[in-house]
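Re: your question from the hallway

Yes, I did run it. Sequences:
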Amino acid sequence: MDNVGYLIAGYGVTGAAIVAYRWELSRRSRRARRLITALSGRRAPGSRARR
Amino acid sequence: MKLLDTLLVKTGTHGAQRVLGWATLVGLAATGILGLLVVPPDAAQGDVQRLMYVHVPAAWLAFTSFTVVFAASVAYLRTGRIRWDRVAVASAEIGVLFCVLTLFLGSLWGRPVWGTWWTWDPRLTTTVVLLLIYVGYLSLRKVADSPSRRAHWSAVVGVVGFVDVPIVHMSVVWWRSLHQEATVIRPGAPTMEGSMLAMLLFAFVVFSIAYGYLMAVRLRVGRLEDHAAGTVMSQPSPRATRPVSVSAATSTVGSGEHG
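Structure:
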């Protein structure tokens, strides 16, 4: 296989970008939930109860 | 529009999102294995052609995302329902991500095949313009001062900005371009070898599932962020709740008079 570096960079960055965006969405979701709970004292809508 | 609405409702449940998440993970892993190890290399370009199995679906996804931005923006302008604004901004964010990936992957492929990382070719230039339009769309949302004005302005940009999508697609036909012409979506049969075409179509499906998954999650985050913003707005301001002493009020008035 030739040009392996290009292939690793291409497939690697694609996967990493999708994972990083998903992680960023989780972070934003947690932040919004914390804010709602802190200000209203109620659990954010759509939150599942902790087991 | 009704189909999009139904899809949004169906993918909004936790169960559907979990299924989509796993399908995305497995699909992306399969795309990596099949694209890198199973499908034969191109006779002329060699192994670097394998980048097409992520570059072309990423471009397809960027176009799809911006088409959804357009449709949701039209729906918002017609109905004024804020959920269409949420759909538009969610799709714009994902579109920008995949537009950046398209340019990056194209540049990686261009270095060994064209001998350069970048050239001001019509396809590449119009794609950069497309990216800038939607980065502008997202930036505009940060400067608008009210939610309704923000939604209205961005819907207008979402409709006008979409003009560049067909220009990007047709750029290789309208102008002399280094970029190859369409090989799948074109008049007549696709010009690719059977297994390569099957791999590309598989990657299209996987990237479309990834789009559905990211949209479902991003819409949930959008609803939460709007709810959080509403909660902040509904809080009484500290100034209104703080008891104001008569002497403090008098001194404020007095200093105003002298100043």
